[in-house]
Amino acid sequence: xxxxxxxxxxxxxxxxxxxxxGHTYCTVATDAMxxxxxxxxxxxxxxxxxxxxxxxxxxxxxxxxxxxQQFVDNIVxxxxxxxxxxxxxxxxxxxxxRTTDDYHxxxxxxxxxxxxxxxxxxxxxxxxKYCKPCESFWTESQLKDGKCPDCGREVQDAxxxxxxFRLSKYADRIQDLLENTDFLQPRSxxxxxxxxxxxxxxEDLCVSRTSFSWGVPVDFDPGHVVYxxxxxxxxxxxxxxxxxxxxxxxxxxxxxDVHFVGKEIVRFHSIIWPAMLMSMxxxxxxxxxxxxxxxxxxxxMSKSKxxxxxxxxxxxxxxxxxxxxxxxxxFPFGSDGNxxxxxxxxxxxxxxxxxxxxxxxxxxxxxxxxxxxxxPAGRRAxxxxxxxxxxxxxxxxxxxxxxxxxxxxxxxxxxFKVIARANKYIDExxxxxxxKDLQANGDRLAAVLYNLLETTxxxxxxxxxxxxxxxxxxxxQLGACEGCRTWESAGVWGSLNPTVTVTKGENLFPRIxxxxxxxxxxxxxxxxxxxxxxxxxxxxxxxxFDTFCKSDLRVVKVKACDAVKKxxxxxxxxxxxxxxxxxxxxxxxxxxxxxxELVGKTLVAILNLPPRKxxxxxxxxxxxxxxxxxxxxxxxxxxxxxxxxxxxxxxx
Length: 652
Ligand code: MSP
Known about the structure:
Blueprint: E1 5-9, H1 21-39, E2 43-50, H2 55-64, H3 68-77, H4 82-88, E3 95-98, H5 102-117, E4 121-131, E5 136-138, E6 156-165, H6 171-180, E7 184-185, H7 188-198, E8 205-206, E9 208-209, E10 225-226, H8 228-233, H9 235-238, H10 250-253, E11 258-262, H11 266-280, E12 287-291, E13 294-296, E14 299-300, H12 311-318, H13 320-330, E15 337-339, H14 341-371, H15 383-393, H16 395-404, H17 408-429, H18 431-434, H19 438-463, H20 468-478, H21 487-490, H22 514-529, E16 533-534, H23 545-549, E17 553-563, E18 571-576, E19 583-587, E20 602-606, E21 612-614, E22 617-619, E23 622-623, E24 625-630, E25 633-638
Parallel strand pairs: 1-2, 1-11, 2-3, 7-12, 11-12, 13-15
Antiparallel strand pairs: 4-5, 4-6, 6-8, 9-10, 13-14, 16-24, 17-18, 17-20, 18-19, 20-23, 21-22, 24-25
């Protein structure tokens, strides 16, 4: 029999830093969906990977003093890297692509050439704005308050010879695709794309760079590397064997059933990606689902803000399944959600320890206590059972309806409504009262316990995609045979053997003490970070007082500040030093400050250093800053003093 194919992908992650809980969210969701489809009998291909090219990686590698390849190898394959994290989180991906893999690189060259030959890629001059962290080009009109519309950071002017993709040619077809099909979900994202990007006019996209080399070389024009998003998006097809011999699954699995992607990269997946596929004459993916972000204190997590949550720490403290479950039970997949440790602990206590854990442990304990673990044959149903049995018998359909719409939270809510109903059923039927007269009530008691075991089993099957390891343990305690763990059996009440033998086992989800857990977590986070701040070693060498007094340290006010052309590091300051004549100082601190944020600031400078020429400009003195290392990264802060201190005031 031909099984239904299902091809699902996560975004391929950018290994510029270690992954955080936000990245883990999408991968766990994709994993749950892949496992659900496998449970239903589909032939699933689940792809994830890493997107390893681009200027940001090149820069980070240079700062770290290693080659870009060594840099990404360490984050992908190194300890506590991407591969380790997916193993820990029990991610069942069938394939892992790295965009530095040879087969992918060669395929991208062929793809680029094909679009060049068909006229959709042409050579021109790029003038515009570039956001380095996002690797995105923008036109002036697309900027938000002069900054990158995606991440809100500063953009830079850029002008160079470059290749362009005729995105504008596809505007009407893309608009039609978005508005008149269910290609992009949830629906709210369609309006965002059409109103913000298509209606203002789709411009051709710059698809090559010459200012750095860490990318796929354009083989017919040395010096150009392919824009990282083209390289990245086609991973979904090269990983199947498109334009390469490494794999042979393209005909079987393309088009993808769904790409799960975070909301800020929906633009790439719902506009640029289908346009390039159209240009290549390839079928389009069936769906793109743009999920929300996990926020921390209302803001996006990011390494640069220093507010990332480490999935290793959480999984190690609370268990992988509890963490997986929490992510999909708590946040509606299509919207943003606020992450907090308190919410995580609360969900574990309420849903897992209380509701599911209690249902399992009470039921197996009673079966052990009243029947030595094995239920006797011969049952008697009661009107009280009907509501529960009906609810459980139709659960699979309600769950399926939600899962097919990628509504994980709703699917889980259906399961937990049944679990709550089953706990209420225990109170209503009071098995401990029935057990007082086993002679008279033995059959009824066995029926009650069977109903509870059967309910727990069906819920267990449907929870398997979310908590695979824990559900295996649950089935072992229930005495559920292999055939009672299948999708088919979750739709059939009564699949569990009537004389089943249960085994009371470990408590699957122990209750967590909130205060104690939060304290442990704090310690674990600190330990995982290592010594956060490293200072320069203190010197034991003395400087005599007279020598110190020779340093002319003064308060200065920044009248103007601009970036020195052709220098990545230097800022040129025009300073009021109180003398009435402007002083110029150059400082290599562009990595830490944008020039406009410094204008008007009151700083400290040493003025009597001999003047130096830098990039052809005189620098007369040096601004004083404080430096330290934080988590291996150098941090610098200009010494800023009270604005009330006048320019020229001497430090002594
Ligand atoms: N490399 C690109 C994707 C290329 S796909 C052809 C990229 N990588 S990323 O590492 O920056 O982000 C990967 C995914 O993680 C994105 O979908 C992004 O939305 C998601 N998340 C990063 N932080 C997140 C949260 N705080 N919350 C939820 N998901 C977020 O983009």
